[in-house]
């Protein structure tokens, strides 16, 4: 049995105190550090949901890869969708540092035991949707994820730095596409407005339920996993997006949206939380399609994983 050292206490109460001191001092918790089981579980839940969102998020835009209107647009979209695969991989790796198994997480997604972002259960009906996803969906992702670069769990926070840099490119490519369409024909402008009308409210739902109906927020914020509440980030997003909509020349589909001169913040209308709940319960427009496709990708490509695993094992044997 190894002797206890001064900086690594062995009894649970002392370990708990050390963990709390790390959080209070705003230092990072690292994979080999002791952590409460609840902290580990919460991180696996959030990181897995985030990873699943990136992977499922490849589908709505991926649907347009073969129908992109030019080689340039196709190259941009291809790069973006590949980035999303990369984000999913960093995030599954971060979950693995907590003891989770990647294949098991994928199974839980397919069996609907773990969630992915509600936003990816809506269809992409026209090419303007590609631009609006970049502008609004990636814009919301940036708002939500920049504070996660300061999350208390080291591997998650570090993964977020690269993810956010890439999300920033994604948002700009979306906005640039929309600016181009808005300078085009009346039909193109109408396509952009139609896409904005369909994606605005779902993008507000990405931030999660309101604070008074968010069971995980208080504990996640106390642990420094989340740095801001769902409503705070939603408000920040609205304030950031309204001037961008004005510059673009589109109308956000909310008659109650207006600047409050006293606070300098935008007030907005009531979100339809029954729609959010229906989507989370599996009844959004594309839930079944998204999961069926992910299941097919897992099953049809199982031979690749098996071959790669067999090759790695053989190679490891040869080296040893
Ligand atoms: N959709 O207590 P709450 C991207 C769930 S990727 C579905 O507030 P929490 C992008 C929540 O999980 C976008 N479920 O939870 C990718 C919880 O259920 P469980 C993904 C949602 O965790 C490709 C329950 O509702 N981003 O942007 O404190 C291309 C109660 O909620 C949603 C992330 O995952 C939702 N919208 O806060 C383009 C960011 N909202 O798990 C773009 C990291 C809530 O208890 N995640 N739920 O069964 C987070 O920041 C937080 O997990 C959330 C929710 C703010 C999302």
Automatic annotation (TrEMBL):
GO MF terms, alphabetically ordered: phenylacetyl-CoA 1,2-epoxidase activity
One GO process term, biological-process aspect: phenylacetate catabolic process
Domain of life: Bacteria
InterPro entries listed in its UniProt record: Aromatic_CoA_ox/epox, Ferritin-like, Ferritin-like_SF, PaaA, PaaA_PaaC
Record's protein name: Ring-1,2-phenylacetyl-CoA epoxidase subunit PaaA
A Pfam family matched in the record: PaaA_PaaC
SUPFAM superfamilies in the cross-refs: Ferritin-like
GO CC annotations, alphabetized: cytosol
């Amino acid at each position: 049995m190894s002797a206890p050292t001064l900086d690594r206490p062995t009894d649970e109460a002392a370990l708990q105190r050390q963990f709390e001191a790390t959080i209070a001092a705003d230092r990072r918790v690292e994979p080999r550090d002791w952590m409460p089981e609840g902290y580990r579980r919460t991180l696996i839940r959030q990181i897995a949901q985030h990873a699943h969102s990136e992977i499922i998020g490849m589908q709505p835009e991926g649907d347009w890869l073969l129908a992109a209107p030019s080689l340039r647009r196709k190259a941009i979209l291809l790069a973006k969708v590949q980035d999303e695969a990369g984000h999913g991989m960093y995030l599954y790796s971060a979950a693995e540092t907590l003891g989770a198994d990647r294949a098991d997480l994928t199974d839980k997604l397919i069996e609907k035991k773990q969630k992915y972002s509600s936003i990816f259960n809506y269809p992409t009906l026209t090419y303007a949707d590609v631009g609006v996803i970049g502008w609004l969906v990636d814009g919301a992702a940036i708002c939500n994820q920049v504070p996660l670069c300061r999350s208390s769990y080291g591997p998650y926070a570090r993964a977020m730095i690269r993810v956010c840099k890439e999300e920033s490119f994604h948002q700009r490519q979306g906005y640039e596409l929309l600016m181009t369409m808005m300078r085009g024909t009346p039909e193109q402008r109408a396509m952009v407005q139609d896409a904005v009308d369909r994606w605005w409210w779902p993008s507000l739902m990405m931030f999660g339920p309101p604070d008074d109906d968010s069971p995980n927020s208080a504990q996640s914020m106390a642990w420094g996993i989340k740095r801001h509440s769902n409503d705070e980030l939603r408000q920040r997003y609205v304030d950031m997006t309204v001037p961008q909509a004005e510059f673009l020349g589109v109308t956000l589909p909310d008659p109650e949206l207006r600047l409050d001169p006293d606070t300098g913040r935008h007030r907005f209308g009531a979100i339809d939380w029954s729609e959010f709940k229906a989507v989370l319960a599996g009844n959004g427009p594309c839930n079944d399609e998204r999961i069926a496709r992910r299941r097919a990708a897992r099953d049809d490509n199982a031979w690749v994983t098996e071959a790669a695993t067999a090759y790695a094992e053989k190679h490891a044997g040869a080296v040893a």
